[in-house]
Structure formats: structure tokens, C-alpha cells
Amino acid sequence: MATFRVPIMDASVKPDGSGDAFFEPYSVKATNDFFDYLVAVFNDTGAKDSIHGKFPVPGDYVGSPKFIVRWTSTATSGNFQIDVDYRSVAVGESLDQATAQEALTVTDVAPGTTDLMQEAELAATAGNFTANDLCQWILSRDGATEASGIAAAVTVHELLFEYADA
Q: Is 162 within 8 Å of 65 (Cβ atoms)?
């Protein structure tokens, strides 16, 4: 059995309407702009700000699902509360749902140095996914419940779906 990581933050991802979660070139946040690509930015607010997306569950999916968030900040202290809500939908099921199938939360600590990449894992329930389902997801920074929150924007470089195959 092998483990795979699939990037799921792509061109179809959309921010909520708050204006505090958005996409911009990394060169806007970075001191050096040699590597320039779009990142998701979550401003420091007292609200829950989100980005929304979807991905196909890989055809060789067996289990051990995790959402992996690779992020950084210019802040060197405080906490980042990460929420991932998702619903995995099979052919013949409704895509128009009002609730998540599962809500995941983890709190990660700011890097001790500016712009160090951090990686947070959120383990999901294996039985909620089936190969070739369409998974709808929402990634949020929850400033409303972020104890000792990071007093700066958080930059998300990658959202990955990790799973095991047969």
C-alpha cells in the first residue's frame, strides 16, 4: 500500500464574499519574488473567512484520508485555527447540500521565524470517501474562535488530499 498526496487548491477555488480571504501573487507577501504563484491569503479578522473548492476522489483511493494544509505567516507567534468542512458525493447523489458530511478542525502554531513553511494535518473519516466521488470542501481560518490568534495574515500555499491506495 502506498500513500499519495494530491494538490486540490486549483483554478476552480473561490473565496467567500467577505473580502478577507482572497488570492494574490506570492510576490506581494514575500520579500523575494523569484518564485511567483497564486496563494490563498486569510487576513487577521475576528470572523470565519473561507475558500471553497472541489476535487475528484482518486480512482485508486482505498483509505487513510487526510487534508494537508501548507501555510506560513509573517507573524512569529500565535495560533492558526484551520477548519476543513467537506462532503463527498457519488454519482446519483445531490450536489446541492446545506451541511458538511464532516467538519475537521486543528490549531497550528505560528512559525518561530517569518515565512517558514508549516504543515497541518486534518484526518478525515475513511468511509466518507469512495473512489471517483466528487468532494466539495471549504477551508477556513476561524478568527472568531482562534485562541491567541496570529496577529497577521496567514498565507496558504497548498491544500493537499492524502490517501492510501490498494
A: yes
